[in-house]
Amino acid sequence: RITSAKLPSLKELADFDFKSVPSLNKSRVLELSRCGYIGDHTNLVMVGPPGVGKTHLAIALCLSACRSGYRTKFFTASSIVNTYREARDERLVTRLESSLSKLDMIVIDELGYLPIDRSGAESLFGFFSLCYEQVSVIVTTNLPFAQWPQTFAGDERMTGALLDRLTHRIEILAIEGDSYRLKQSR
């Protein structure tokens, strides 16, 4: 399951420095690592500036899910858009969505870091619609929800519909702090 998840690296929850982000509720994160939210099809959105550990936490929660018997997959926002684009070019979107719907949890990392064109925004809307009440999604982003329309080709109506589905069952982890990479380079 861990190999199939296609994680970019292995990051353990035990290695996360909770002291560097005191605004983060450590006990809640530890509770999430028990994976109860997956059975409820609850989504997690981690919001915060770059370098505060959102990706580390998403990977660690993905590893916990794999170890608990759940099927997971890790994507960056740009890689899921590219996966849809390739599937559309090869007329395999139905097959892609069938494989995604068999997963228990999917991570979408770095949503909002790169602009997404209209076609990509429509693909992401389709993805979130597919997952709605079927597959738990973890999203990491540096943008508050109010700024999401700029990521989705400026389409406020589509973004509103997407957020309606994503936030129906949601846990939001707001992570504030300084970049640990910046701290290390100093």
The arrangement of helices and strands along the chain is HHHEHEHHEHEHHEH
Shape: globular
Structural class, please? alpha/beta
Low-confidence stretches: none
Number of helices: 10
Rounded mean pLDDT score? 93
Query: Could you give the count of β-strands?
Result: 5
Taking the sheet with the most strands, its summary is: 5 strands, parallel
Rg result = 16 Å
What is the straight-line distance between the termini?
A: 38 Å
Order of strands, main sheet, comes to 2-3-4-1-5
Helix content: 40-55%
Question: Which percent band covers the strand fraction?
Answer: 15-25%
Layout of SSEs?
Elements: H1 2-5, H2 26-32, H3 36-39, E1 43-47, H4 54-67, E2 72-76, H5 77-89, H6 93-101, E3 105-111, H7 118-131, E4 136-141, H8 148-151, H9 156-166, E5 170-174, H10 180-185
Parallel strand pairs: 1-4, 1-5, 2-3, 3-4
Helix pairs in contact: 5-6, 5-7, 7-9
Structure description:
This protein has 186 residues and is α/β, with parallel strands linked by helices. The chain has a 5-stranded parallel beta sheet with strand order 2-3-4-1-5. Helix 7 runs parallel beside helix 9.
